[in-house]
Amino acid sequence: MTIRFDGRVAIVTGAGSGLGRSHALAFAERGAKVVVNDLGGSLNGQGQSSSAADTVVAEIKAMGGEAVANYDSVADAAGAERMVATAVDAFGRLDILVNNAGILRDKSLAKMDPADFEAVTKVHLYGSAFCTRAALPAMQKNNYGRIVLTTSNSGLFGNFGQANYGAAKAAMVGLMNVVRIESAKYGIKINTIAPMAATRMTENVMPADMLPLFKPEYVSAAVAYLCSEACEESGQIISASAGYVARVQVMSSAGVFLDTSKPINADTIAANWASITDMSGCQGFDSAGAEMEYIVQQTMARLKKSA
Ligand code: NAI
User: Fold this and answer.
1) pLDDT tens readout for residues 95-124
2) Per-residue model confidence as pLDDT tens digits over 7-64
3) Percentage of the chain with pLDDT > 70?
4) Is 159 in the pocket of ligand 1 (CB under 6 A)?
5) Residue 253 carries which DSSP code?
6) Which DSSP state fits 92?
7) How far is the CA of 49 from the centre of ligand 1 (A)?
């Protein structure tokens, strides 16, 4: 199978450097027209410049592709609308949105300035929500769309000094779970990438000899697949780095159904803790409703048995 994006229009946010640039080039190489969004600020989200986005647009044009720049901040709801308008005005439609733009302001939570919590949340969480919100009507119109959110192992698994970033990144999973359900009837698939790659964000934290192993292109391969017609999946979290590609899922243990004819208190929980947390029969749920259904079914079955 050769995945192509001919006739497709993609927006990649934060595409002026690192992973976003690599995603934009991957789409363009395979025929997509690309809106290269980038505010052009520093790693901690200060300043702005058009040169980052312009450079990537020039790279795409030099390889015979089509691209336009957009310099809006993803954290600005009106800017997100302009970004989508840029795609529709320049190329007539919108098929793909990769929410990739991001900043860092690391510090342990006890020492973190609230402004740093807010700035990071605004770019990652509000930014992804605003851009996705702005993109949905254009995708709904064509009954087709592919959206990728960018999470981080920092949020999925935890990392010292990144409470703002980890919380905002874990929120991508919540955003995805809801948009997946709301968008299913429009043929819109939304998935989440958990990348690791050598970029300006990681060049000072990854050991120098590791950097060449973590090529952004490896992550872009997974992003391109998730944004293709070939991908029928929606609601998946895919971890991709250094050639490693894996699915990450939120799982629930089979759980314990406590005897509700007796008092349930903290001591009951303590007595059952090992079974409550035993993941041997774990399962994932497709929606909040599916979890509810499981609980109600099991509870009703128990009540019937004890009647
Ligand atoms: P990067 O710093 O090279 O690229 C981020 C880009 O986003 C920059 O070009 C920046 O100008 C742009 N940007 C920042 N704020 C913006 C805003 N408000 N509006 C528009 N553009 C904005 O970093 P990298 O590594 O390429 O990160 C890409 C994404 O991947 C981020 O969301 C990051 O959190 C995530 N990530 C990266 C990992 C890695 O190993 N590099 C690990 C886990 C997640």
Assistant:
1) 999 999 999 999 999 999 999 999 999 999
2) 999 999 999 999 999 999 999 999 999 999 999 999 999 999 999 999 999 999 999 9
3) 100
4) no
5) -
6) S
7) 15
Residue 66: burial class (beta carbons within 10 Å; 0-12, 13-18, 19+): middle
Output the pLDDT for position 1: 83
Determine if ligand 1 sits within 6 Å of the CB of residue 79. Answer: no
User: Which residues in the chain land under pLDDT 70?
Assistant: none
Distance in angstroms (rounded) separating the CA atoms of residues 88 and 305: 60
Using CA atoms in the order 150, 123, 145, 50, what is the torsion angle rounded to 10 degrees? -110
99 to each of 2, 192, 212, 245, how far by Cα in Å? 24, 9, 25, 19
Exactly one of 165, 186, 244, 294 is catalytic; which is it? 165
- CA 38 – ligand 1 centroid, Å: 10
**Cβ(40) – ligand 1 distance below 6 Å:** yes
**158 φ, ψ (degrees, to nearest 5):** 105, 145
Report residue 217 as tokens: 């292109």
What's the confidence (pLDDT) of residue 303? 86
- Ligand 1 centroid distance, CA of 165 (Å): 11
DSSP 137: H
Ligand 1 near 219 CB (within 6 A): no
* Cβ–Cβ under 8 Å, residues 181 and 171: no
pLDDT of residue 306: 81
CA distances from 12 to 46, 83, 225, 285, 299 (A): 20, 10, 15, 30, 46
* Nearest-atom index, ligand 1, CA of 15: 9
Domains within the chain, CATH numbers bracketed: 9-248 (3.40.50.720), 266-306 (no CATH)
Q: What distances in angstroms separate CA 202 from CA 43, 104, 165, 211, 214, one per listed residue?
A: 10, 10, 14, 9, 10
For ligand 1, whether the C-beta of 247 sits within 6 Å is no
Active site residue 71: no
